[in-house]
Write a structure and sequence with these properties.
Number of strands: 0
Shape: globular
Oligomer: single chain
Distance between the termini: 39 Å
Helix content: over 70%
Order of helices and strands: HHHHHHHHHHHHHHHHHHHHHHHH
Radius of gyration: 22 Å
């Protein structure tokens, strides 16, 4: 165990990527110990990605890239400006609302930060906001990406913990709303303290149009439900409602009503049993292609090829992390390191609330040094047996782990959102880190509420029959 962990840390300190450090540390352990054949390294790495749920990874990444190149991010931004730009600190509120909408399509914090972040930071700087404030609110709102469904970390966690990915998706809705409210309240506080005004003149027509788009999206599932209660077949009801929505969008050229439909389609399709959570990723890609090629006609073959190559590159890096983390986690288990840590934690406490506090501290620490996917792959086999033994719902724990790791994305030395925003804003990593620090307050408040009020996470999936 000591050889495994020390070699991993030594390779990281030498500046190697986390995945290479984990794979290298595992190989060093196998060579030194001589207890396991070398071929096991390749076998376990392949077994780590030989999973049907992992098919969702490239498709969700592709969906996020397609949304970016199709100009849908710009439509989302304009919609958010119409909805909340008139408030004090308006563009800060726009930043958060835009992230909420984009979260329903991309499923990753990095895609949110890179896609909407470049638009939002430039607009806020043009309106006189400090670069630090623009970066801070963009970083905080990017954490909504993996909380509001769909979510790549939920897919990985569901695969590792053998938990319903659909239940995890639904469980993220209320925590996502709660986090949104906290962030908007934080923007309002900064606006009050700094005496900021609005950035867009209040206009009833603009606000009414944005509100109408939201009502149309909410009316879609309601109309389907009422039609089915009246005896209309589900497929017929959905088809008619969808056709009507397309006609209205074509007639009135709404800003983002079809983009807002993405999470409705994904969650609704899974609830009705039309596709699995893994297949929902394919549905997200099809929807993005429909918007870019058919409805908005903003996508070309060149940009489509660009999005495809970016997806291949990102998917390769993500799956390499998964393979390296798989062998590392397997060795932690076979060397009894995971069992030793579990025994130590249980020797400290058998109280589940104290355990959740210790788990939060551990995951927060790990998230600052290890990539989100790798951290989930390593920590789930260690912590899940304790979670089940203490009677904690694994879906609840999945939300806790994901939010902790999202906070880790905002910190050095390996916070990817931190580095993306530093590049976009042209700030140093140090100044970007300082800019993000005040936004840890709403994030940690949300983490505390999600940890110690399980109903925030579990109520909605229980009402939908996804949990007992």
């Amino acid at each position: 165990m000591l050889i495994l962990i020390v070699s991993f840390l030594a390779l990281m300190l030498c500046g190697l990527p986390v995945a290479v450090a984990m794979a290298g540390g595992s190989l060093i352990y196998l060579l030194v110990s001589g207890t396991v054949p070398d071929i096991v390294l390749a076998q376990r790495m392949i077994a780590g990605i030989e999973s049907f749920p992992l098919l969702a990874v490239p498709f969700f990444i592709l969906a996020g890239n397609l949304m970016n190149i199709a100009g849908i991010t710009g439509r989302i931004y304009n919609f958010a400006v119409a909805l909340v730009g008139w408030m004090k600190g308006g563009l800060g509120q726009v930043n958060i609302i835009g992230s909420v909408i984009f979260s329903g399509m991309s499923g990753t914090a990095i895609a949110d930060a890179a896609g909407l972040g470049s638009i939002e930071i430039k607009a806020m700087k043009d309106h006189g906001y400090s670069t630090e404030f623009a970066v801070g609110v963009t970083a905080a709102s990017a954490t909504l990406g993996p909380i509001i469904p769909p979510s790549l970390p939920f897919v990985i966690y569901g695969m590792m913990a053998n938990v319903s990915i659909g239940a995890l998706f639904v469980a993220g809705i209320l925590p996502g709303i709660f986090m949104t409210v906290l962030m908007m309240a934080t923007v309002a506080y900064f606006a009050y303290r700094n005496r900021w005004g609005s950035d867009v003149q209040f206009h009833w027509g603009r606000l009414g149009s944005a509100t109408l788009e939201i009502l149309l999206v909410l009316a879609f599932p309601m109309a389907v439900w009422l039609a089915t209660r009246a005896g209309v077949p589900v497929n017929t009801a959905v088809g008619c409602a969808f056709a009507l929505l397309l006609v209205l969008d074509w007639r009135y050229n709404f800003s983002a009503v079809l983009a807002l439909m993405a999470p409705v389609i994904l969650i609704g399709g899974m609830t009705m049993g039309w596709f699995t959570p893994t297949e929902a990723a394919v549905a997200a890609v099809i929807w993005a292609l429909f918007l870019g090629l058919v409805r908005y006609r903003s996508m070309t073959l060149k940009t489509l090829a660009q999005a495809t190559f970016e997806t291949i590159e990102t998917t390769a890096s993500v799956l390499f992390i998964v393979t390296a983390a798989s062998i590392f986690a397997w060795l932690l288990t076979t060397t009894q390191a995971a069992q030793m840590l579990a025994d130590w934690i249980l020797s400290v406490t058998h109280n589940k609330w104290v355990f959740l506090l210790l788990a939060n501290l551990l995951i927060l620490f790990v998230g600052c040094f290890i990539d989100t996917i790798a951290a989930i792959t390593i920590l789930v086999p260690i912590l899940l047996p304790i979670v089940l033994k203490l009677g904690i719902d694994p879906v609840h724990f999945g939300l806790i782990m994901t939010l902790n790791l999202m906070v880790g994305l905002l910190h050095p030395p390996l916070g990817m959102v931190l580095f993306v925003l530093a590049r976009i804003s042209k700030l140093s990593v140090e100044r970007t880190t300082v800019a993000i620090l005040p936004w840890l307050v709403p994030l940690l408040l949300a983490l505390a509420a999600i940890t110690y009020i399980p109903a925030v996470t579990l109520w909605l999936p229980q009402q939908m029959g996804l949990l007992k």
